[in-house]
């Protein structure tokens, strides 16, 4: 094989190694970051990224109609993916990566333009659009993102985050990080809510293991100096959801939401049941 042919095969192999940002019908390969860097080739930050990325608010879960096209079964790199078409409980731990300037402004699977500074993410099968809490298993920090894209199509990665989401979780320089991904139902916190108690609550976390949920509940009571009657662990299928409340008003809940963020560096999600 001559040098030009070899280079052509090598470039093709790199292209096929990635995941896609385009709708399934028009899959365009996205190459994952290299093992030792934060981005691949030119897929890094802009020359002058915004200075206030830590102040970018998390995505706010709200009920939206599912995209007509982005939730159909599709094939990427020889694997068939069947997206969820209803909101269901989903919890998975694995490796998250991020994508940036190389795709900024290009269409996502939802048809929206990718904004690397928004709190969004790409996932192979979660509904589009939908919402998820992503928690760093290394630092405990968490963010809430809106899923509006497909990918990553890599056996060792479970979600692709926007530049800002990866920044807030602290793994921009590494290019990837270990995370827990939990789906969020905009009608009631983490997906699949069956609790019948009405009121306003703050959802601080959801765990597959009850002992982890109880440990977080105990931390909340200790660090926030609140009565045990204001905390609860709700069992919902295989999820143990940790909540504060009920609150008399949105303002009261938002006050405690700020305290949770300040003292535990966690993002609580406002949950309303009526």
Automatic annotation (TrEMBL):
Location of the region described as Disordered in the Swiss-Prot/TrEMBL record: 23-52
Secretion signal span: 1-22
Intracellular or extracellular location(s): Cell membrane
Keywords carried by this UniProt record: Cell membrane, Cell wall biogenesis/degradation, Lipoprotein, Lyase, Membrane, Palmitate, Signal
EC primary class: lyase
Domain SPOR: 194-273
Protein origin, superkingdom: Bacteria
Described purpose of this protein according to its UniProt entry: Lytic transglycosylase with a strong preference for naked glycan strands that lack stem peptides.
Protein family membership: Belongs to the RlpA family.
NCBIfam families: rlpA
Protein name, entry field: Endolytic peptidoglycan transglycosylase RlpA
Annotated organism of origin: Thiobacillus sedimenti
